[in-house]
Amino acid sequence: xxxxxxxxxxxxxxxxxxxxxxxxxxxxxxxxxxxxxxxxxxxxxxxxxxxxxxxxxxxxxxxxxxxxxxxxxxxxxxxxxxxxxxxxxxxxxxxxxxxxxxxxxxxxxxxxxxxxxxxxxxxxxxxxxxxxxxxxxxxxxxxxxxxxxxxxxxxxxxxxxxxxxxxxxxxxxxxxxxxxxxxxxxxxxxxxxxxxxxxxxxxxxxxxxxxxxxxxxxxxxxxxxxxxxxxxxxxxxxxxxxxxxxxxxxxxxxxxxxxxxxxxxxxxxxxxxxxxxxxxxxxxxxxxxxxxxxxxxxxxxxxxxxxxxxxxxxxxxxxxxxxxxxxxxxxxxxxxxxxxxxxxxxxxxxxxxxxxxxxxxxxxxxxxxxxxxxxxxxxxxxxxxxxxxxxxxxxxxxxxxxxxxxxxxxxx
Length: 412
Hints:
The chain has about 400 residues and is α/β, with parallel strands linked by helices. It has three domains: about 1-105 and about 245-305, 3-Layer(bba) Sandwich (FAD/NAD(P)-binding domain), CATH 3.50.50; about 110-235, FAD/NAD(P)-binding domain (3-Layer(bba) Sandwich); about 330-400, 2-Layer Sandwich (Enolase-like, domain 1), CATH 3.30.390.30. The protein has eleven helices and 27 strands. The strands form seven sheets. A six-stranded mixed beta sheet has the order 3-2-1-7-20-19, with helices on one face. Strands 9-16-10-11-12 form a five-stranded parallel beta sheet. It has a five-stranded antiparallel beta sheet with strand order 23-24-27-26-25, sandwiched between helices.
């Protein structure tokens, strides 16, 4: 059997590793538009912040040799011909397959793609982006930057460059940062605290409207209020689109069944896969590391053993890089809000029918695992949740569950 993966990211690497560890001895070909061994997108901002490049290869820089893979790199797949069981690349190469694993991830979306032709304007999604930004910052002696986009990726970019020592201006069109992973109150709290702790200049309800170049290099940006700022570095991170066109003909993602099959003989996983939510049942793209890993394992098991099913995705978001101020959220921010705050710590859950419908935890992560389990279990918690949220000790809720008492779960 010949297996081809379109993509070499986390999901594809996990899929291939599982196949080999479970005894698959057939040919494996991995295709990518980049020139690297499989790397973790979760880790690459640490490289930009100053960590060694080799730290991004979380399954080893020698992955292709270790798992006996033929790597086709630097040549993107542009078409999947499911009738003929082959993929075609931009360079005109064709690869036939018996089974296909389609895990192409997502790409940055740009309001003005032409800006990327200007030296000093970059996306912030791939290792190719990080290497280019790092080289540019070092060679040009860059000391300040504008980051356009205050969602998860934009804040990650701003914190990485801030940690490196650059002066950062973060521009976001919404009323608060991280507007997709927080509600209004939580986002406002997180925005204030991030500004206080880092000194990053945050411009809300604002956009970058235009750029000015000098001899092909970025010189300044103009904001939506008409003001301008001189800068030689602009990071654009305002959205992503799944790379589903070669298989589906559009950028809406790849729907899958519980075995992670898009169609017979074609599996999918990761940031391109449309799956069912484990709690709500709603179909969508839930782009997180745990989802991608479980999807890849499900696909590998089904290919080898013809059994197993994916239990569903969860839209958990965790931001805890470059600064000791984590932000965690999951679920839907609708229902009855129950909130507790003490200093830099802010916790809120949303209840529906007495069960957790969603939650936001800012400032520490000691309680996030327990709240996550309550969310998944669908247990009623309306009589105890405020006492749980206000627990000053990280082990107090476990003590309460075991009936040990003395949990010091005092009301705030």
